[in-house]
């Protein structure tokens, strides 16, 4: 019962000094507002940039045969040659992962290819790639003109092609290429689309020198060498923060598809496409640390101010403390009362600071991009916990001083 009485007495004391309580609470609220506001803004900006970077491949990973990019020997030893990823394996993986991600299959058909129109031809530097219905979207390739492959063209291997901008500039200088015909690899293809020019950034030159054909069409073209296409797989997931989880699941699925035995190393390799996202996470981590430091320094100043105000309160209420002790209040009860006052003031300021911080953080993130309204519950609980800690630390010494006052000397205090 003494605890409840002390809590009620502490609340009455706060109500009796309302202006001082409001001013003290504002000191705490500004500290919490800076802490929660900065961290909310960082989370909101990161969410907005996550959505932007998703279009740049930050939410995707590639699977290819291990050692596909190795050339020659390493350290005088011949590299182990792993079997290519066959169409059946790639298609099985696509079917198994279809409910978790969007999977694109493609195959590099030919490089250093000469492409001819009725009047002109290109240099022998054109890449021919066969892709499925998800290929353009997965590779972030946009059409400047024309259309994508239809389901009929994909399923039946029709001789249609989507050309890169450099191909168009070389053999269709003053002509709209849509509906025209080009010849390469001994076949005649109808041009149904043209890719946007990508330039020299982000590997754009190679994309501008590329012709995309339906995957079924690429499978019909005779391949020099061993006569087997090596398929590449690109997996795109809707949420970038689930990339590690889906990659782990994809590794297990692909091991089963490739029949890699237990304990044996993978015959394929997975490469993340989220270097931008990794950089973003690193930068946002630094921003969070900076925001926490700024908020901590502000709260440190607020705790010093609160302690000073509580000491002033002890001096102002010396006679009151003497009366309470004369009526039988123990030192423990006096100390408890002042601690409760300090904690309640901090919590009131903390709740106000959390509310203002959420509004401030979402306002800042809205200026950067549309990241939606975010309530960082973790930082809300952290902020309120810090308020309680600040209240205990700031109120402990004033409460101790109040509890040690001699009742006779306190009653004589003017």
UniProtKB/TrEMBL annotation:
Keyword Cell membrane found: yes
Gene Ontology annotations for the cellular component aspect, listed alphabetically: plasma membrane
InterPro entries: ABC3_permease_C (IPR003838), MacB_PCD (IPR025857), Macrolide_Exporter_MacB (IPR050250)
Residue intervals of the ABC3 transporter permease C-terminal domain: 293-407
Domain of life: Bacteria
Subcellular localization: Cell membrane
Keywords: Cell membrane, Membrane, Transmembrane, Transmembrane helix
Topology of this chain in the membrane: Multi-pass membrane protein
Pfam family, one: FtsX
Major subcellular location class: membrane
Residue stretches making up the MacB-like periplasmic core domain: 21-220
GO molecular function terms listed in the Swiss-Prot or TrEMBL record: transmembrane transporter activity
Transmembrane segments: 21-42, 289-314, 343-368, 374-394
Keyword hit for Zinc: no
Sequence similarity: Belongs to the ABC-4 integral membrane protein family.
Protein name per Swiss-Prot or TrEMBL: ABC transporter permease
Lineage of the organism: Bacteria, Pseudomonadati, Bacteroidota, Cytophagia, Cytophagales
């Amino acid at each position: 019962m003494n605890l409840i009485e002390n809590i009620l007495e502490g609340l009455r004391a706060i109500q009796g000094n309302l202006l001082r309580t409001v001013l003290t609470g504002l000191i705490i609220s500004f500290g919490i507002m800076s802490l929660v506001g900065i961290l909310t803004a960082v989370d909101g900006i990161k969410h907005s940039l996550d959505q932007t970077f998703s279009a740049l491949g930050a939410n995707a990973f590639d699977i290819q045969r291990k050692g596909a990019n190795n050339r020659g020997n390493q350290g005088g030893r011949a590299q182990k040659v792993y079997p290519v990823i066959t169409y059946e394996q790639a298609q099985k993986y696509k079917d198994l992962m279809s409910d978790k991600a969007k999977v694109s299959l493609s195959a590099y058909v030919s490089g250093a290819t000469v492409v001819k129109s009725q009047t002109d031809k290109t240099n022998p530097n054109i890449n021919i790639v066969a892709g499925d219905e998800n290929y353009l979207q997965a590779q972030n390739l946009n059409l400047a003109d024309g259309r994508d492959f239809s389901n009929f063209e994909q399923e039946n291997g029709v001789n249609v092609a989507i050309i890169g901008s450099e191909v168009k500039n070389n053999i269709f200088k003053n002509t709209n290429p849509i509906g025209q015909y080009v010849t390469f690899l001994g076949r005649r293809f109808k041009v149904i689309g043209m890719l946007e020019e990508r330039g020299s950034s982000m590997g754009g030159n190679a994309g501008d020198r590329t012709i995309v054909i339906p995957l079924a069409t690429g499978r019909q073209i005779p391949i020099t060498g061993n006569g087997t296409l090596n398929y590449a797989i690109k997996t795109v997931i809707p949420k970038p923060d689930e990339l590690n989880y889906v990659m782990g699941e994809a590794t297990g699925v692909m091991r089963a598809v490739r029949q890699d035995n237990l304990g044996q190393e993978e015959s394929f390799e997975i490469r993340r496409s989220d270097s931008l996202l990794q950089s973003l996470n690193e930068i946002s981590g630094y921003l969070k640390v900076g925001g926490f430091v700024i908020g901590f320094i502000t709260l440190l100043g607020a705790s010093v101010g609160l302690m000073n105000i509580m000491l002033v309160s002890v001096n102002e209420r010396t006679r009151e403390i003497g009366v309470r002790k004369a009526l039988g209040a123990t030192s423990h009860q006096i100390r408890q009362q002042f601690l409760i006052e300090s904690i309640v003031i901090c919590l009131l300021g903390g709740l106000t600071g959390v509310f203002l911080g959420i509004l401030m953080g979402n306002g800042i993130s809205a200026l950067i991009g549309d990241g939606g309204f975010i309530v960082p519950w973790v930082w809300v609980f952290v902020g309120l916990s810090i308020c309680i800690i600040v209240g205990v630390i700031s109120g402990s010494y004033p409460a101790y001083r109040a509890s040690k006052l001699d009742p006779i000397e306190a009653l004589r205090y003017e």
